[in-house]
Amino acid sequence: GEQQAQVRRGDAAGGGAVAGAAAGELSAAVVAKFDATNKELSKGRKKRPPPPGQASAEQVAAYSKLASSALHGKGSVCVDSHRSEPLVATGGADGVVCLYDTAQRKALSKMKGHDGAVHRVRLHPRAAVAVSAGADASVRVWSTEERTETAKMALHAAAVTDVSIHPTGDYAVSASADGSWKVADLSSGGCVLSVEDAASLGSGGFSCSEIHPDGLILGTGTGTSAKVWDIKSRANVASFDVEQPVSCLSFSENGFYLATGGAEGALKLWDLRKLKNIHTIDVGAPVRSAAFDFSGQFLAAAAGTTSLYETKSWASLAQHKAAASGVSFGAAASLLAAAGPDGKLTLYGSA
User: In terms of CB atoms within 10 Å, which of 8, 142, 184, 348 comes out highest?
Assistant: First the structure.
């Protein structure tokens, strides 16, 4: 509807960097929008039932390989599954953003725009939009209906390592090797907030980031720690000493846990209420991607193998032999999409 139209209208080629310089703090209007969304989301979170048809631990443990498709050239691939539709988006080292229909098990479109690797792609949960982050220092917006690039946001001075869609649905939050994170308006392409973290530059800036499901805090990874930021005050409110470069991070949909993946194989779980490490899993290879399902009951990790865990005791449910560089659960955890360092997308589920 209107949100889709708004998101699609924006084109910010080149305009972002200038806007970013002045974006010291969020406007009152943006803060009000963030607060309203946060209130709505956090209110329903505790009592929210799992989605209809939610997979059980037994089903997830028994997942088998359903399909495998070569979508990209060689090199690391990132992946995102749509929250409710049978749609997956992948981004490759070849610079291509690909849309894939998981029901028909076929590629719908291969969209070119990025000059260099795509580090992250995210599907908008409510509009026909995808957002991608690239080594070319750009964030790009795509129409998943028209399958074309609708905006290029030049917000950063170095590779954009990660991007999330804010829960309002109106903003993209990106992090970069330039040591900054930014909030940009998806409809205008303008930067509404820019925060620079000089401390992160010593270890190559930000390696990854994700917005908390309630929309008021942001997690970022660096060469030594995971930092949690209050978006409204721009303050670094917590830091977790991960003891190895943070290669990925993911917040649980229940809002309580943060998972961090390390370049030396440690998958660590942190309790955001107590600000402490509650569990560590040695994955045995660099953790390239970690993702919770929407119900918060399962966690997937991409490393030398594709691993699945349940989140009550963090016990292992299954390990699939194929190496992965990206993982994402489909609707109701009925599917796991795993993208490989060989350019392939593999789907796991109940046969």
Answer: 184
pTM of the model: 0.92
> What's the N-to-C CA distance of the chain in angstroms?
36
Q: How far is residue 113's CA from residue 123's CA, in Å, rounded to a whole number?
A: 17
Among 240, 183, 190, smallest CA distance to 216 is for 183
Q: Which of 13-22, 82-91, 154-163, 277-286 has the lowest mean pLDDT?
A: 13-22
Pseudo-torsion of CA 322, 259, 132, 306, nearest 10°?
10
**Which of 116, 122, 113 lies closest to 89 in space, CA to CA?**
122
User: Greatest CA separation found in the chain?
Assistant: 53
Q: Any bridge partners for residue 92, and if so which?
A: 77
Handedness of CA 153, 263, 95, 87 (dihedral sign): negative
278-281-284 Cα angle (round to 5): 155
343: pLDDT strictly greater than 90: yes
Q: What is the pLDDT of residue 255?
A: 82
- Among 167, 123, 158, 122, smallest CA distance to 138 is for 158
Would you say 137 and 99 are in contact if contact means Cβ atoms under 8 Å apart?
no
